[in-house]
């Protein structure tokens, strides 16, 4: 009986490195709404000076996060919010269609690495939910300080909500 238990334990220990190696690296998705916009009477306004300040803070905060991909909608305010980080990291901003949240969430889940996703008040919590994370409710009109960190590890998903920069204006 002792010999059989020993053999089972030895077999388990010998297969452990294979099991650990088979475990995938997590996919980490940083989700943020665009920074403060400068109202210019158009449907595609740029960000304001406060928005540029917040975008530079975001770049500083994420400098050591190991982000490998940057994604943004095709609006000036989202592109500009990600610009300081993308330039510092030497990454190109890839556009995504916010009308296909499920498809984009699937693409993120299946693309190894760490992703920064720039969105809007109506898409950022929805993307957290589409990834299987916690949306933490709606983002108010003047709320720009949420930073979601959604970690996807095989079938386990965790969400951390951080705040950065000045609170609502």
Structure, explained:
The chain is an alpha/beta fold and 169 residues long. It has one domain (24-163): Rossmann fold (3-Layer(aba) Sandwich). 38% of the residues lie in helices and 21% in strands. It has 5 helices and 6 strands. The chain has a 6-stranded mixed β-sheet with strand order 3-2-4-1-5-6, with helices on both faces. Helix 2 (49-61) runs parallel beside helix 3 (76-89). The longest helix has 21 residues, at 2-22. It is globular. Mean pLDDT is 89; it is low at 5-23.
Give the H and E element order.
Answer: HEHEHEHEHEE
Main sheet: strand order = 3-2-4-1-5-6
Portion in strands:
15-25%
End-to-end CA span:
71 Å
CATH class: Alpha Beta
Question: What spatial form do the alpha-carbon principal axes imply?
Answer: globular
| CATH homology superfamily name | Phosphoglycerate mutase-like
Brief description of this entry?
The protein is 38% helix and 21% strand. It is an alpha/beta fold and 169 residues long. It has a single domain (24-163), classed as Rossmann fold (3-Layer(aba) Sandwich), CATH 3.40.50.1240.
List keywords for this structure.
single chain; 169 residues; alpha/beta; Rossmann fold; six-stranded mixed β-sheet; 5 helices; 6 strands; 38% helix
């Amino acid at each position: 009986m002792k010999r059989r238990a020993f053999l089972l334990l030895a077999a388990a220990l010998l297969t452990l490195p294979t099991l650990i190696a088979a475990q995938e690296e997590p996919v980490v998705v940083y989700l943020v709404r665009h920074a403060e916009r400068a109202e210019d009477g158009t449907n595609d306004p740029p960000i304001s000076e406060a928005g540029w300040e917040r975008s530079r803070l975001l770049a500083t905060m994420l400098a050591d996060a190991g982000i490998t991909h940057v994604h943004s909608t095709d609006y000036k305010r989202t592109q500009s919010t990600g610009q300081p980080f993308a330039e510092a990291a030497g990454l190109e901003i890839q556009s995504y269609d916010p009308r296909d949240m499920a498809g984009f969430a699937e693409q993120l889940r299946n693309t190894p690495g760490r992703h920064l996703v720039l969105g809007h008040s109506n898409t950022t919590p929805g993307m957290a939910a589409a990834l299987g994370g916690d949306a933490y409710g709606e983002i108010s009109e003047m709320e720009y300080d949420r930073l979601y960190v959604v970690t996807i590890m095989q079938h386990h998903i965790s969400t951390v909500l951080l705040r950065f920069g000045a609170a609502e204006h």
